[in-house]
Amino acid sequence: MELNAETLSLFGQFLIKEEKSRNTVEKYIRDANTFLSFAYGQAVSKELTLAYKERLTGLFAISSINSMLAALNTFLDFLGFGDCKVKPLKTQRRLFASEDKQLSQEAYEKMIALAKKEGKERLCIVMQTLCNTGIRISELAYITVEAVQAGKVTVNCKGKIREIFIHDQLRELLLGYIRKTGARTGSVFVTRNGKSLDRSNLWREMRELSRRADVDKEKVFPHNLRHLFARTYYQFKKDIARLADVLGHSNIQTTRIYIQTSGNEYRSELAGLGLMGT
């Protein structure tokens, strides 16, 4: 098979048939194209894929490299070059979350307050919805008029169906927003063109809000609201298995990443053990 733009199109169709999410399809095609740019005219071989893996090392974080290699291996299977697949980089599980990437509840509440003050109602309610349900930004379209009225959302993501409840306070907020917009059915949060709000729309608005709220923009992106929900839920319930179900994780190790505390929090916990003596 000749490796070109048509190959990527066929790969995309393959991923769709495999019921991959839209975001996964886009990412895998993007990563496959990165590999094709590296290969450029060379025959696919184990030596080539190993060289590509080596090339990625040092350019990206380990988690990003492994994500790109997962896409590459799927692409190689599609091409019929399964024997050229490469192993992910090994890394020890991090004990603490990176403090420069972790959004605090204080920063979140600061942004919510400013959004209310500036009349950014949709942005404010979207952030509250994500942070009170733990859903992914790609699942925001499942927040429909019908779901809000029923008080629960049925999400179908990555072949898994789960139910997420909307607590009363959030439900009243959403119902008020629905009345203002006049929406009768379908997604609650849409653009002016009637399309569901996506990651790029929201990320841009959140970044602009963070600047005005004097919150580090590196900590502000939609998925961090999901992480804040996870940490807060776990601190309250101490039930990681239940949290994994709520978040829709198949592997509980993924959930562990979400609830990592910062190094400073861990220092405080150690000091609180009271083992220094008198």
What's the total count of β strands? 2
Q: Main sheet: which strands, in order across?
A: 1-2
Distance between the termini: 74 Å
Mean pLDDT: 89
Integer count of domains: 2
Our count of helices gives 13
Low-confidence stretches: none
Task: Profile the largest sheet.
Answer: 2 strands, antiparallel
Q: H/E order of the elements?
A: HHHHHHHEEHHHHHH
Task: Please bin the fraction of helical residues.
Answer: 55-70%
Structural class: mainly alpha
Give the CATH class of the largest domain: Mainly Alpha
Beta-strand content bin: under 5%
Q: Per the principal axes of the C-alpha atoms, what is the gross shape? A: globular
CATH architecture of the largest domain: Orthogonal Bundle
Radius of gyration of CA atoms, rounded to a whole number: 22 Å
CATH superfamily of the largest domain: Intergrase catalytic core
**CATH topology (level 3) name of the largest domain:** hpI Integrase, Chain A
